[in-house]
């Protein structure tokens, strides 16, 4: 490949370097014409001349010089990078003297210090003479390690000498010939590897390597072609770069690497920065022979350019700067008069011409380079260049954007999209999307949106657009890949589901909802779009109590409409605390791939299979398919479920789901009965509501009984009230179509044969109501719930539930209301029964009963014997005074006096006998009172004669001294306590009477005690009489 095929750019600016005082001349530091060698490093350009001097020129062109070889000349220079040491190779003035290598240490030399003549004196730390076999051969090239432990010297006779050791500190060094050949050495270079040091050796006809650290080092030939002197250079990556007329070659320790075709004669190669190779070609009319492999000999090579060598002023020397990384020519120009040397320092390239002119090449800044590339639409090179210059991501993305825009304008939409894909994350996606919204470019837009999602940078609008692209293209395969293979959810889930629903791809919407546990969306699609109620119910059953409660609150009404029995069973389990915990949601299987969008697609077999997995399913798959299911009552209470199956949770309130049963009262009854039974089971021993229709409860966990909370008690009241209302309010006939859809008989009704045209509907309605009323009565008798009796009484009155009304009156001990209730219904037998049952408990019933019995002739005729019996009972128990009895019977003219003739006779006779007894007692009290008064008068007016002979205390014969009391008791003096003034035998009775007297006086003002006794007594008159008999009233203070 010829060099003209490489792209060429002007990435360097050429400018002459002139003296500040005379623009026609170079700076004074460069005006000497006897310069023999050039190098640079550590902020200086270093020149050596034929007189043995070395000149160091700084950036301000100040010169510092020192004499390296007195009377000789310098042939080679090397400035180390890691230390301030300059190595020179030269010759002294004596003829036939071997070349000498000198090490000059500038660490202690102040190069900035001004001197009068500019001469400095660095220390020469080491001098090494190069000799080989007693013969003197010129040094063609040399290489040195930065740590100064090895130096290799190549001679013109084809010999390579390796000098090892600490070249600065050790006094002696060892020189070893490592290669001898017939071709001159044109290039040397060290490559430092991890465990070895490789020396490249280049001759005019071969490239070799030598491992200087090996135990038994050997020479390895990498190539059978070499290069001319000055055409071998080491790169920054420690590769050997060779320039031959046809190409540039690169070698590493293993062999030849990449090459760059550049056909042109080459006189020297120089490495600049990290990627640039400076190629100098010979003058076009030069008489200096150039080396061509295979055609030249050693004698044809001018190793030592003669001082003052002149060329024609019309000779043109071409200089090319090649970018080895990006493979283009960064600069190419011709210089009149030839080039003597090229050095690189201070970020620029310095070119020294044979006509003593100096030129500087300055690299353009990166934005300028990019601008040049943009003008030529070379965006790939611009991108590579930006990467090499370590541009930030935003700047590189801007280049990709320009490249994409360029390709888009050219109509290369695929290529443009490839570039736009590289801008994702930095460039606003809408910029790209707007360009590809045309229907003809939908494939490119799809690829961009896919990549946007894969990087997690898409929003809801991007997801919508991508899915719309899939659906418009009907690309089900890519839709599958997008939805099914995205494990990290790099798109907006809700948007994806919405778009799939709108496009009719319900299977994909369901798949996404189930996979990422979007329960609400899953159920919404299943119920409203696909109408797959069995799968929806099975899905809810796997969600666990918390999620099931939330979703059933929303969808219970719809599920009850289509699957009432199964939905009711699930609600029962949820509200009774027996629902299993959530099962692990395994990734759903891939749906069958549809060829086009479909509406509601029902898979009967899969739906039935899903239904059979329900935890409440009682039948097999065949039963489900045939529409036959086991009724709720088929689950026996005796079937115990192990404790570990269910996790404990607080069951939700049943009233939350009651509105969903608005069109299904029968299932509401079933639901409430089971929940009520379970909720009350822990508080009482289960009570069967009715033998005809017993409530079957589902097995629950066996746990220790705990005190019910206030919320549980309130929940039981709500359930109780709702059940009672349903039992009493249901007046509908039996729904004969109930079993057609759900194939199960509601358990609260007794099993009856299907209706036929010969069966009277009213008979079944009566039987139904009888069952419900019996259950309602059993519910009222349930003592486990402290329900509101007044509310229940209102319900029973509204629905004319007589048994319930009577029971509630009895529970509240409202016996008079019971009697009045039956009186209003003119149920004489019931009135009689109530009189017998409740009369002993409430005497106020008898006047009501007597009034009722005598209210009508028919009633009196029917209850005459009972009326007489009541009168006898009143008389025997003395329950009512005769006047009250007569008043009760005299409300109308139905009862005659003959009915109570015997009763009045007995009462009069009884009262007459009581009067006689009272008169006898009065006479006896008066006689006793009179005797007491006479005794008192006798004591006050007559002397008392004591004739007692025995002591009343000890019973012994009286002996003086004695003590006699007026009560006729006598005692020995010793038998009476000292200072005793009362008879020991009568003192107790006297004190008791005195205490009673003081109590009566104290209670005379305690009116509250009097009224309390009066209120609690059955006969108040007897209390007043008792107060008068004790003369308590006499002590009461009169208050004006």
UniProtKB/TrEMBL annotation:
Residues 951-986 form the RING-type domain. The keyword Repressor does not apply. Its EC number is 2.3.2.27. CHCR repeats lie at residues 420-568. It is an enzyme of class 2 (transferase). Residues 908-942 form a coiled coil. It is found in: Endomembrane system; Vacuole membrane. The keyword DNA-binding does not apply. It comes from the Eukaryota. CDD domains: RING-H2_Vps11. Residues 735-757 are annotated as: Disordered. PROSITE patterns: CHCR (PS50236), ZF_RING_2 (PS50089). GO terms for molecular function: protein-macromolecule adaptor activity; ubiquitin protein ligase activity; zinc ion binding. SUPFAM superfamilies: ARM repeat (SSF48371), WD40 repeat-like (SSF50978). GO terms for biological process: endosome organization; intracellular protein transport; organelle fusion; vacuole organization; vesicle docking involved in exocytosis. It catalyses: S-ubiquitinyl-[E2 ubiquitin-conjugating enzyme]-L-cysteine + [acceptor protein]-L-lysine = [E2 ubiquitin-conjugating enzyme]-L-cysteine + N(6)-ubiquitinyl-[acceptor protein]-L-lysine. GO terms for cellular component: CORVET complex; fungal-type vacuole membrane; HOPS complex. InterPro entries: ARM-type_fold, CHCR_PEP5_VPS11, Clathrin_H-chain/VPS_repeat, PEP5_VPS11_N, TPR-like_helical_dom_sf, VPS11, VPS11_C, WD40/YVTN_repeat-like_dom_sf. Keywords: Coiled coil, Membrane, Metal-binding, Protein transport, Transferase, Transport, Ubl conjugation pathway, Vacuole, Zinc, Zinc-finger. It is a peripheral membrane protein. Pfam families: PEP5_VPS11_N, TPR_PEP5_VPS11, VPS11_C, zf-C3H2C3. Component of the homotypic vacuole fusion and vacuole protein sorting (HOPS) complex. Component of the class C core vacuole/endosome tethering (CORVET) complex. Belongs to the VPS11 family. This is E3 ubiquitin-protein ligase PEP5. The lineage of its organism: Eukaryota, Fungi, Fungi incertae sedis, Mucoromycota, Mucoromycotina.
């Amino acid at each position: 490949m010829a060099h003209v095929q490489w792209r060429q750019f002007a990435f360097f600016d050429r400018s002459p370097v002139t003296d500040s005082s005379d623009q026609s001349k170079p700076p004074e530091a460069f005006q000497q014409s006897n310069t023999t060698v050039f190098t640079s490093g550590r902020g200086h350009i270093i020149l050596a001349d034929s007189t043995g001097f070395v000149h160091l020129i700084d950036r301000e062109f100040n010169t510092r010089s020192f004499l390296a070889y007195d009377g000789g000349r310098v042939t080679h220079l090397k400035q180390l990078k890691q230390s301030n040491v300059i190595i020179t190779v030269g010759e002294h003035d004596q003829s036939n003297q071997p070349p000498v290598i000198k090490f000059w240490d500038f660490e202690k030399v102040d190069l900035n210090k001004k001197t009068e003549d500019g001469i400095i004196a660095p220390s020469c730390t080491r001098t090494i003479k190069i000799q080989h076999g007693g013969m003197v051969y010129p040094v063609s090239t040399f290489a040195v390690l930065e740590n100064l432990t090895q130096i290799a010297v190549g001679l013109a006779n084809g010999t390579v000498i390796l000098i090892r050791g600490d070249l600065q500190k050790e006094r002696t060094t060892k020189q070893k010939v490592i290669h001898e050949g017939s071709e001159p050495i044109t290039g040397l270079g060290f490559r430092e590897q991890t465990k070895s040091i490789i020396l490249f050796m280049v001759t005019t006809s071969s490239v070799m390597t030598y491992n200087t650290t090996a135990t038994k080092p050997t020479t390895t030939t990498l190539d059978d072609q070499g290069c001319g002197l000055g055409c071998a250079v080491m790169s920054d990556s420690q590769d050997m770069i060779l320039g031959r007329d046809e190409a540039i070659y690169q070698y590493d320790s293993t062999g030849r690497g990449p090459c760059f075709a550049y056909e042109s004669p080459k006189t020297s190669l120089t490495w600049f920065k990290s990627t640039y190779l400076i190629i100098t070609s010979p003058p076009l009319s030069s008489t200096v022979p150039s080396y061509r492999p295979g055609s030249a000999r050693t004698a044809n090579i001018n190793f030592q350019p003669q001082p003052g060598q002149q060329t024609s002023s019309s000779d043109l020397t071409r200089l090319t700067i090649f970018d080895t990384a990006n493979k283009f020519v960064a600069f190419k120009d011709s210089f009149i008069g030839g080039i003597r040397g090229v050095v690189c320092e201070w970020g620029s390239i310095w070119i020294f011409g044979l006509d003593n002119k100096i030129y500087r090449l300055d690299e353009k800044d990166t934005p300028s380079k990019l601008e040049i590339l943009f003008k030529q639409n070379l965006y790939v090179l611009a991108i590579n260049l930006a990467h090499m210059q370590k541009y930030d991501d935003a700047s590189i993305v801007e280049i990709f954007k320009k490249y994409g825009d360029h390709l888009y304008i050219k109509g290369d939409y695929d290529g443009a999209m490839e570039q736009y894909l590289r801008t994702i994350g930095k460039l606003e996606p809408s910029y790209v999307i707007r360009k590809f919204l045309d229907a003809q470019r939908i494939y490119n837009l799809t690829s961009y949106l896919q990549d946007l999602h894969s990087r997690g940078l898409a929003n809801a609008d991007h997801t919508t657009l991508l899915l719309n692209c899939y659906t418009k293209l009907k690309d089900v395969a890519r839709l599958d890949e997008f939805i099914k293979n995205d494990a990290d959810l790099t798109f907006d889930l809700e948007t994806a589901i919405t778009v799939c629903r709108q496009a009719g791809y319900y299977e994909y919407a369901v798949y996404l909802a189930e996979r990422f546990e979007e329960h609400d969306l899953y159920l919404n699609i299943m119920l409203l779009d696909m109408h797959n109620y069995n799968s929806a119910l099975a899905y809810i059953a796997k969600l666990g109590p918390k999620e099931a409660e939330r979703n059933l609150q929303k969808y219970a009404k719809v599920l009850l409409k289509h699957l009432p029995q199964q939905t009711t069973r699930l609600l029962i389990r949820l509200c009774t605390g027996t629902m299993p915990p959530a099962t692990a949601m395994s990734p759903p299987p891939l749906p069958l791939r549809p060829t086009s969008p479909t509406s509601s697609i029902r898979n009967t077999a899969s739906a039935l299979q899903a239904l059979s997995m329900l935890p409440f399913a009682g039948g097999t798959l065949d039963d489900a398919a045939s529409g036959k299911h086991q009724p709720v009552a088929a689950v026996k209470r005796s079937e115990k479920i192990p404790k570990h199956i269910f996790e404990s949770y607080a069951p939700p309130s049943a009233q939350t789901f009651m509105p969903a049963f608005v069109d299904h009262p029968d299932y509401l009854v079933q639901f409430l009965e089971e929940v009520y039974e379970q909720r009350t089971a822990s508080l009482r021993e289960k009570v069967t509501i009715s033998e005809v229709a017993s409530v079957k409860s589902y097995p629950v966990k066996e746990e220790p009984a705990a005190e019910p909370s206030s919320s549980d008690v309130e929940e039981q009241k709500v359930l109780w009230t709702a059940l009672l209302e349903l039992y009493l309010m249901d007046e509908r006939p039996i729904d004969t179509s109930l079993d057609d859809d759900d194939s199960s008989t509601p358990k609260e009704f007794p099993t009856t044969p299907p209706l036929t045209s010969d069966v009277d509907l009213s008979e079944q309605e009566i039987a139904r109501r009888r069952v419900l009323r019996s259950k309602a009565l059993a519910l009222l008798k349930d003592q486990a719930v402290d329900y509101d009796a007044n509310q229940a009484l209102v319900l029973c009155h509204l629905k004319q539930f007589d048994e319930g009304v009577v029971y509630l009156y009895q529970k509240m001990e409202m016996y008079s209301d019971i009697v009045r209730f039956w009186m209003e219904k003119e149920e004489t037998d019931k009135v009689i029964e109530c009189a017998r049952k409740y009369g002993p408990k409430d005497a106020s019933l008898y006047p009501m009963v007597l009034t009722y019995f005598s209210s009508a002739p028919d009633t009196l005729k029917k209850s005459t014997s009972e009326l007489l019996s009541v009168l006898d009972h009143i008389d025997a128990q003395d329950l009512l005074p005769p006047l009250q009895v007569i008043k009760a019977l005299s409300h109308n003219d139905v009862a005659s006096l003959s009915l109570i003739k015997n009763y009045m006779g007995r009462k009069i006779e009884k009262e007459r006998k009581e009067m006689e007894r009272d008169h006898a007692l009065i006479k006896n009290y008066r006689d006793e009172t009179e005797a007491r008064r006479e005794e008192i008068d006798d004591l006050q007016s007559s002397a008392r004669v004591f004739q007692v002979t025995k002591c009343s205390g000890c019973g012994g014969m009286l002996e003086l001294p004695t003590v006699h009391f007026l009560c006729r008791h006598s005692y020995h003096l010793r038998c009476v306590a000292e200072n005793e003034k009362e008879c020991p035998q009568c003192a107790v009775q006297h004190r008791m009477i005195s205490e009673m007297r003081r109590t009566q006086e104290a209670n005379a003002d305690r009116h509250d005690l009097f009224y309390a006794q009066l209120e609690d007594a059955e006969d108040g008159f007897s209390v007043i009489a008792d107060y008068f008999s004790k003369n308590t009233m006499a002590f009461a203070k009169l208050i004006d």
